[in-house]
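Minutes, project check-in

Agenda point 3 was the complex the collaborators sent over. CS summarized: two entities, 1003 residues total, and the question is how they sit relative to each other. Sequences were read into the notes so everyone works from the same version.
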Amino acid sequence: MAILTKDEAKKILDKVLSYSKADEMSASLSGGRLGNIRYARNAVSTSGESDNLSLSVMAVFGKRSGTATINEFDDASLEKTVRRAEEIARLAPENPEYMPMLGPQTYLAANPYAESTAKMTPDFRAQATFDSLDPCRKKNLTAAGYMEDSTRFTAIANTKGLSAYNRETSVEFSVTVRTADGLGSGYATRDVTDVSKLSTKEATEIAMQKAQASASARALEPGKYTVILEPAALLANVDASLMAAMMNSFDARSADEGRSFLSKKGGGTRLGEKLFDERVTIYSDPTNPEVPASPFGGGGGGGGQGRFNGGSDGRPQEKVTWIEKGVVKNLSYSRYWADKKGVKAIPAPANFIMEGGTQSLADMIKSTEKGILVTRFWYIRPVDPQTLLYTGLTRDGTFYIENGQIKFPVKNFRFNESPVIMLNNLEALGKPVRMGGNLIPPMKIRDFTFTSLSDAV
Amino acid sequence: MNRRDFNQLLGMGTTGILLPSLPAFSRPVTPEILLEPGLDVATKKRLADAAMNAAKSKGATYTDVRVGRYLNQFVVTREDKVQNIVNTESYGVGVRVIADGCWGFAAVVDAKSEADTAKAAEKAVAIAKANAKLMKQPVQLAPQKGYGEVSWKAPITKNAFEVPIQEKVDLLMSVNSAALKNGANFVNSILFMVNEQKYFASTDGTYADQDIHRIWPLFTVTAIDPKTGKFETRQSLSAPVGMGYEYLQSNPADKVTGITTRYNKGYDMLEDVTAAAKQARAKHTAKSVEAGKYDLVLDPSHLWLTIHESVGHPLELDRVLGYEANFAGTSFATLDKWQAKNFNYGSKQVNLVADKTQVGSLGAVGYDDEGVKTKKWDLVKDGTLVNYQAIRDQVHIIGEKESQGCCYADSWSSVQFQRMANVSLEAGKTPLSVQDMIKDVKKGIYIIGDGSFSIDQQRYNFQFGGQLYYEIKDGQIAGMLKDVAYQSNTQEFWNSCVAVCDERDYRLGGSFFDGKGQPPQSSAVSHGSSTTRFNGVNVINTARKI
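CS then shared the predicted structure for the full assembly.
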C-alpha cells in the first residue's frame, strides 16, 4: 500500500526541490488506498479497490505558476516533472493575486489516522456488507447501501522551508432499507476514522425500523411545523445540506464584495453581529478526538467535501470559533484577500463542531407536544443566495409526534427554508453526533416551512 | 445530482472558484499535448486483443476493453483577471469481463504494453469470480453483433484545442469588460472544452474508434445595490454542446429574438453578457411575484432541466429496478405502469424521445460503451409511457431483444453503466410561434434560462427557478418579475401541457455534469424542446428576510 512515512516522503520532496530553477517551488506527494463496496436489491452490485501515489510540482516565476504531476519516482522522472512545471509556468499568464509561498509553519498535533482502517481488506468489506444484508433478507426487506474507505497521506514542502506531513483514514457507510411493497423506506449513515467503531449491523437495524415504521404514511397539510431534525437531515456527506451550505458561505471576500448573506447593507460584513439564537456556537478544531482532521490545508470546508486538499498552501488549521453565542466571530480568507484587508489569513475549516446539549433524540421527542421528526433531507439546492434560502425534501422516515410520542408516519414534504432563519427559531439542541467528519446536534426548530407534499417513498 | 459542482464554480453568491470535476488520473499538460494524436488504432487494437485473450484464458465468457484518452481544457476568469488555465490529459485502459456469470472490472493507468492490459484483464476475472459467490442471478447479456473495425467522429468544424489560448483569454476579457461596462459589479466567465478519444473492443467482434468533442462557454454576472445591500445575478443563456469552437461563431440565423435573445447552434457570448448585465441590474427593481396559479410559458433554455429531472431520470431502468435506491433514488414510473400501456405521463401533446444520435448534442456517439450502435426511440408517445432507457444486461426485463445503446463510463477507470440518453420533447406538429403562444395566455409567466432545481427521490414533486421571469397579462408581456419558483408533480405537470411551439423554435439545452452512481460518475447530456405552455402551475414567492 502506498502509505509513505514522513521520512520517505521528505526524501522524495527534498530531491524534487533540489532540481528547481524557479523563483519558488512547492511539491506535494500524496497517495493511499481507496476501497468501496456497493449493494442493491439485497446483493452486491460493485466493489473495488485502488492504490495511488502521485507527485504534484508547482513552479513559480514572478506571478506566473505552473503545475505538473507524475506517478514515477526515479531521479530522471522527478527532474523531468520539475522542468515541465517550469515550462508550464513560463507560458502561464500572470496571476495578480499570487501570494509568495509561506515559510516554515507550526502545526497542531492532530491524529486522523487509525490502523484498523488502514488494514481493511476485501473480505472485511464483504463481511460488513453481509452484516447489513443478512438481517434485511431475513425480514423480507430490501437493502441498498454503500461503504467507502480511504487511507491516505499527504506530504508538502517548498523552497521557502515549509514542510508538513499528515496521514488519515476514514470510512463512510450508508444504507437505505425499503419494504417489499415499496411503501416504507428508512435510512442510516455513519462515518468514522477508526473502522472498529463502525457497526453496519447497528446502523442497518435503525434503517430497518424506520422502513417498517414509515409504511402507509398519512398526508398532513403543508405549512409551518415544529420539527426535530436528526443530524443526517442537517449535514450530509453525499450531497448538499443546510449546515454545510451555511458554513461554506463564511468566505470574507464574498461578504466584503456585497454578495453573501454576511454582507452588510451599505458595505462591509456582518462580522460581530448576532445573527443566530444565543445557543448557537460553532467552531473548528483538527485535534478534536471525535472528528480529527488534517492540521494543515487551505481548502475544504464543512460538510465533508474536500476535507483534505493535497495541493493546499500549507496554512495551519487551528481552533477557530466561527459563531459564538449567536454572534459571527470569524470569516475565512484567501491569503490574497487577508493581505489586502490587513488581517490574519484564517483558512476555511477542515471540520466544524457545533455545541449542543445533553438530550438524546428520544428525550427531544418526549418533550415535544406536536411536531415532525425528520430522518433526512434530500436534493437540497439554493433558491436565493442572498438569504441562503434552500429547497429540498424529507426522505426515508418522516413521522408525526404528538404528546411526546411518535404517532404515525407522514408523507414527505418539500421545504423552503434558510439555515439562518432556522437557527433563530431554535427550540432545543440535543447531543452532538459525528456526521461527515463534523459534530452536529439534533435540533428542534419551530416554524419550519414545508411548502408542498410529495408522494415519494 | 445535477450541476452542483458547477453552480459552486459559478459562485451562486460566492466568489470561491472551484475546479470542476476532471476525469480520474488527469494530469496537467501543455496545450500542445492536446493536439497530439495519441495512440494509433493498430496499437490500441493490440492492447485490446491482449486483454481479451488473457481474460478468455482465465475463464471469461465475455470481455470488453476501453482504451481511453480524455483531454480537458478550461480557462477561468473574473473581471480583469485570468484565474486559471488548465490543460489535462488522462490515459488508461479499462477491462470488463463476465466470469462465472458475474461482472468484474479492472483498469490500468498509462497502459504501455500488452502485458499491462493482460494483467488488468486477469484482475478483472479474479474480481468477477470473487463477486460471483455473492451473486443472486447470473448476468443475462443481450446478444450484440460485432461491427468489425469501425470509427465515428463528432461532426465538428473547428477543434477548440487548435484555437490559441490567447484568443480564448481575449474573448473572455472582452466579455468581462462588456459586463462591467453595462452595469455588472462582478463577472466570472469560463470556457470549458473536452475531447474524449475512446477506443472500444469486445469479444463480440467490434473495434470502434471514436472522437467526441464538447464545449461550454458560460458566465455569471452580479449586480449589487449598495443602498439596499442586495445582489442579483444572471447566468449565461448558452448551452453546453457536442460541438467544436464553431459554437462561438455568432450567426444571425442561430439567434432567436424576442424579449431577450436566445441562441441555437451558434452563441454570441458578448451580446449575451451585455444583455445579462443590464438584466441583473433591472432585477433590483423588478416586481416580486404574487404566489398563485399561473400558466407557464417555458423557453427551451429553461425546460431542458425540467425534462432532465422529471423524464430523463425516472425512465432510467436501473432506477426503476432499485439499483440506485441508496443514493439517487428509485422511480415513480414502475414496471406495472409501463405494462398497463395506458399510463398518462402527459397530455396528448407530449412526445418524449431518447436519442443518442442527435447532431450537436452532448450524448451523441456512434457506439455506446458496450459496443451497441446508437439510435433514437420513443419513451412517451402521445402522452402514454411506452419505454425506458436500458442497456445490455437489463433489456430482457422489458422484453427487448437488443440494448438501446445508452451505456457510458466517465473514464477508462470507471465501470460503464446505464446513463441517460439525450431525452427531448418533440416539437409541436402544427405551426405555432412563441408570440402566438403568449397571445393566448391571460395570466402567466414566461421563464427563460435554468436556475434552482430540486426533485424528490422518486421524481414526483419538483421545484424549479430560472434566470429571467416575465409576467404575461392578457396576452402581453407586462414586465419583469423576480422571486419566482414553480412547484408541481411530474404527471400533473406534463398533463397540464397544452401547447408546444413548432420545430422553428426547437433548441437544445443540457448538462455537462449529470451525476449518478456510488462512487459518483458524471455524464454530459442534452435535452431539446421548443417553447411549451403548461396551464395552472403553482408558483411560490421565494423572497425572505434574514
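Noted in discussion: Chain A has two domains: 6-206, 210-242+356-454.
Follow-up: revisit at the next meeting once the mutant set is ready.
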